[in-house]
Design brief:
Blueprint lengths: L10 E10 L2 E11 L15 H8 L7 E6 L2 E2 L5 H6 L17 H6 L9 H4 L1
Antiparallel strand pairs: 1-2, 1-3, 3-4
The structure holds adenosine-5'-triphosphate and magnesium ion.
Amino acid sequence: MSRSPERENAIECRGITKSFGTVLANDHIDLTVRYGEVLALLGENGSGKTTLMNMLSGIYHPDEGTILIGGKETVIHSPVDAAELGIGMIYQHFRLVDVFTAMDNIVLGTKEKRLGAKELK
Ligand SMILES: Nc1ncnc2c1ncn2[C@@H]1O[C@H](COP(=O)(O)OP(=O)(O)OP(=O)(O)O)[C@@H](O)[C@H]1O
Ligand SMILES: [Mg+2]
C-alpha cells in the first residue's frame, strides 16, 4: 500500500461487527494500522481473526461499522476492490478453485489476467 501523509493511517476499522446467524464473530472491532507497521492479530480459535481479515479483503461485508483506507471511508465490495486498494490476503490454508486450471489459479489475483493464454504461459 503506497504511503500517504504521516497523519493518515493505512487502515482503520471502526466498530466492525459481523454475525453468522446466531454467532457473533466480530463485536465492534476497532483496529488501526499505520503505514509501514507490521501487526500480529492474536486470538484463540474462533475468536474472529479471519472474519475481520475477510472483511478487509472484500470477501465478507460488515453488518455494522466503517473501514477507512488512507483516511478515507471505503466500502470494499470485492477482492478486486481490495487488490486495487493494495490489500492482499494469504490464507492459512492453501486454496484452489477446483474448476479452474492450474494456470487460472496462479493468475487469479494478478492484474495481468487480461493477457491472452499464450502470453500468460
Ligand atoms: N462463513 C461462516 N459461516 C458461519 N460461521 C462462521 C463463518 N465464518 C466464521 N464463522 C464463525 O465465526 C467465528 C469466528 O471465526 P473465525 O474463522 O473468524 O475465527 P479465527 O479467529 O480466524 O479462528 P482460527 O484461529 O481457528 O483461524 C467462529 O465461531 C466461526 O465458526
Ligand atoms: Mg482464522
